[in-house]
Amino acid sequence: MPAENYPFCTIDPSVGVVAVPDERLAKLSVFSKSAKTIPAAVEFVDIAGLVKGAAEGQGLGNKFLSHIRETDAIAEVVRIFKDDKIIHVENKIDPLNDIGVINLELVLADLETVTKRLASIQKDVKSHKKGAILEDNLLQRVRKILEEGRLANGILLHDDEKPILKQLNLLSVKPILYVLNSSEAGENDETILSKIPGAFVRVDPVFENGLNDLIKKSYEILDLITYFTTGEDETRAWTIKRGSTAPEAGAAIHTDFREKFIKAEVIEWEKLLAGGLTRTEGKNYLVQDGDVIEFKI
């Protein structure tokens, strides 16, 4: 990925796929004497930084905001180190201000989207169409939050509202991880750590410190868990959403494991290493992080 000492070095998104560090995988592979070991992975998309006015098109803002819409979560990289030789787009180091600018641009972009959508459904609302009334009520709540300058990712949703909000692909609804760009070779602003408005990790990309924490934390905010399959051929980590049933988890391997599911033989990874026995679970079993599973179809 390009890195230069001037703003908007990155124009087009750069994609990187990284393995999720997991010591459990290596231990299972040794236990099974596997020929191959395949980790879970997370995809990162490096998108250019947002500046004040991005929602109105400043700094190629509309283009960059459209790139963010395609992601499942947002990692906001915010500089906390001081170095006069490395410029900042605002010509000052103020991490909390940077966070405020970025989040406000997300809010303003969403406010425009919601306002347009509300206008487009009013005819159906006046015709008393049930779906339009439900959407109107939801979007009125979302708009109120956005008009207050707040992110919408804390809004409480009913089950029938979730698909409505999802189809709008709003930016401020996405989970956010704050990545504090620090430097072990220089001075860092430590005073702001307690004021970061959400989950954060510290990373020093020069010395490659904190990168594993970034990967693991990204996995967490996406609400993902890992289960394993293991044998002589391979030990593999599979990524699924937390709360997935056994058939849903099996679909990560092949759709047949969901559609033709009969049962699953399950054991926690530590119990397997200790010589424990598997148990049989049915289609309603909720897979837990660290489960080792063999599916039967």
Automatic annotation (TrEMBL):
InterPro entries, per the entry: Beta-grasp_dom_sf, G_OBG, GTP-bd, P-loop_NTPase, TGS, TGS-like, YchF_C
Keyword Transport: no
Domain spans labelled TGS: 223-297
Span of domain OBG-type G: 1-223
One Pfam assignment: YchF-GTPase_C
Keyword terms of this UniProt record: ATP-binding, Magnesium, Metal-binding, Nucleotide-binding
Cofactor(s), names only, from the UniProt record: Mg(2+)
One term under GO cellular component: cytoplasm
Gene3D superfamilies according to UniProt: 3.10.20.30, P-loop containing nucleotide triphosphate hydrolases
GO molecular function: ATP binding; ATP hydrolysis activity; GTP binding; metal ion binding
Superkingdom of origin organism: Bacteria
Name of the protein this chain belongs to: GTP-dependent nucleic acid-binding protein EngD
